[in-house]
Amino acid sequence: MIYRKFGLAILTAGLLSTQTSDAQENSRYTTLYQHTTQQTTTPRLYNGSPKPLTLVTEVAFNSMSILFDSLKMNGVPFQISFTPGLSTQGRYSTKIINSFSFNILGGETGGTSGFELGGLFNLNKGYTRGLQIGGLFNLTRDYTQGVQIGGLYNKVGAGVTGLQIAGIHNLVNGDLNGLQVGGIYNHANSGEGLQVAGISNYLNKHMRGIQVAGIANFARAVDGVQVSGIVNRTKKLRGVQIGLINIADTSDGYSIGLINIVPRGYHKLAITTNEVMQVNATLKTGTKQLYSMILAGASAVNHDKVYSFGAGLGKEIAISNLFSLNPEVSAQYVYLGSFRKFNLLNKFNLDLHVNLGKHLSIFGGPSFSAYYKEQHLPVPGYKSTLPAATYHTFRVARNVDGWIGWNAGISFF
After folding, report:
1. Which of 7, 17, 190, 283 is the least crowded, having the fewest Cβ atoms under 10 Å away?
2. CA-CA distance, 37 to 26, in Å (whole number)?
3. Handedness of CA 68, 69, 74, 77 (dihedral sign)
4. End-to-end Cα distance, the chain
């Protein structure tokens, strides 16, 4: 059956090159075209005769369609398209689910359950199962299960289960279950799995899993981890945020960053003194489980000035309504008259807080310091050594001295 139908196609192409009268050619083209395509329509005429190139193109495509129809009868539905509308399945292309779909430039089908490849784009009115690759973009009206790869852009009308990769942007109107990788931006309704974006990830609802972005992550609720270069934002956190700025309306987890904003969380301003600095101010934000600290300190004694600024992390451990224990670690740059030399003071404090009210406490405790210094020559007006000479220090490593000190202060809010 296949050989007979291909024979008709070859015969048609051969007749096109035969030198006969216009009337005879028109009759042969029309008759053979109708037999080959098994249709009752006549070919388009050009000055009373079929246009040769149009006829050859249509006969070639319909000859391939005959082969594909025979394969479909054996349970292997597939199609080839040049552009939407110019397909081996003709006007039925948007109604057929294919096991294999190859779109030279682009094509529109009823869906794919297997493999689809588009030179530029793929358009599916139904679902996509299996592997879909588009040189520029993929659009699936229903859901996607499997792997979807778009050079620039992927859009899925329902949900995605599997892997979605785009050079620029992935958009899922439904739920994501799996891995979503976008060169710039990922968007989904809710997610369970992993989102990775060069700039930003956004989830309209819940994220159960991990979000990783170069700049920002957004999700209404997070059960998992948010990691970004600048900001993480969620209304409800149950997990970990790691970024320069972390924002959560409520938190049952940990925010690790320079600034952690939890409106219903932990907010303290502490004024302290210790063996190195006369006055220190520390802003503490986050939760009792883990809060971040921004520190600044100064000693303005004539001829012994020293300034510092840095950051740290701490935790509040409630002992009773009256007492709490706060272990804290910090690192501060120490300025001794020259920015050309790097001096770093690392401290561990273990402070016992006595709560005098809801917004006021006094505290104090021991500390351990490890001081790395590159500045060995004193600058006039600035302190030459840390700590004071009365303190016993010991060598921790090259250019690193350690000692046991103290810390005391008052905390507000």
Report:
1. 17
2. 16
3. positive
4. 88
Helix axes 52-73, 22-37, angle to 10 degrees: 20
Task: Report yes or no: 370 and 350 within 8 Å, Cβ to Cβ.
Answer: no
Distance of CA 379 to the CA centre of its chain: 49
User: Cis peptide leading into 387, omega within 30 of 0?
Assistant: yes
Nearest to 411 by CA among 236, 249, 283, 227: 283
Distance of CA 238 to the CA centre of its chain: 19
pLDDT (0 to 100) of residue 210: 97
DSSP tally for the chain: helices H, then strands E: 3, 31
| pLDDT in the model for residue 91 | 85
Q: Which of 197, 195, 313 is nearest to 255 (CA)?
A: 313
Residue 15's SS3 state is: helix
In contact, 182 and 196? CB cutoff 8 Å: yes
Bridge partners of 213, per DSSP, are 197, 228
- Three-class DSSP category at 200: strand
* Domain ranges, ordered by start, for the chain: 2-73, 78-261, 266-412
293 SS3 class: strand
- Give the separation between CA 292 and CA 270, rounded to whole angstroms: 13
Give me the amino acid identity at 332.
Q
Q: Quote the DSSP letter at residue 382.
A: B
Q: Quick check: 403 and 369 in contact, CB under 8 A?
A: yes
Q: Which of 368, 376, 375 is nearest to 396 (CA)?
A: 368
pTM: 0.73
Of residues 67, 64, 87, the one with CA closest to residue 76 = 67
Q: Looking at the chain, how many residues does it have?
A: 413
CA distance 116 to 98: 9
User: Token digits for 198?
Assistant: 């060069």
Instruction: Give the residue ranges of the chain where pLDDT is below 70.
Output: 1-76
What pLDDT shows up at residue 12? 39
Q: What are the Cα distances from residue 114, in Å, to 13, 97, 146, 281? A: 34, 9, 9, 63
> 266-412 — its CATH code?
2.40.160
Burial 250-278 (b: 16+ CB within 10 A, else e): bbebbbbbebbbbeebbbbebebbbbbbe
DSSP secondary structure string for all residues of 245-259: EEEEEEESSEEESSE
Q: Which amino acid is at 337?
A: G
